[in-house]
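We treat protein structure as text, and this decision shapes the records that our systems exchange. Because each token names a local backbone shape, the row as a whole describes the fold. An entry from our holdings is shown next, in its original layout:
>
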Amino acid sequence: MKKILTLLGSIGIVGAAATTVVACENNDHHDNGDRQAEINHQLNNLKDINKVIPESKKDLGVIEDIGMATIKDTFRDNNQNLNLNNDNFQVSQIGNESSMLHSFKGYKGHIIVKYKVFKNLFDHTNLGELANAKEETIKTTILDQNPNIREFNPNFVVFQINKVKDNKYQALIKGQQKHSRSTIVEFTILQTQNS
């Protein structure tokens, strides 16, 4: 009799354990479903970045180059209210006049940003013959000979004016944005004849 009771007790413990395992498995499956539903709910409730950013903020103006960091920095500077850093979104489909920004942290969707590249605005980097090598003369000539620069009116400075030889000169032109790269313009100085 004692043996039968021991045997029945063992079967009862094993049966209870099996029931507990099955119950845990079912709860985990149910919890996973709830978690997935919550994730889906959160994703569906994210704001569409295309509706958050006004059209005027999608035009980055004149940028120095089409490097990923330049595009990110300029976009972030133009949209400081989003409190983004460069790791909070991605840039792809980079072209000479537009790029796609996507994978925004806390937002869904993507946007297309537009821009003009500073060095591509130059129709003429050889300015011809100038009266002198002063910064104001160089700047005025650049604006006169390069209608795109005049139209988009980017801020730029003339620096490092160097005499190459005889009456030939070069000057470096640089935008006033962060991380600006320079563009070289060339010109000659009008020679005065001594009588």
Helices lie at 2-44, 49-52, 68-78, 135-145, 147-152. The chain has a mean pLDDT of 82. DSSP finds five helices and ten strands in the chain.
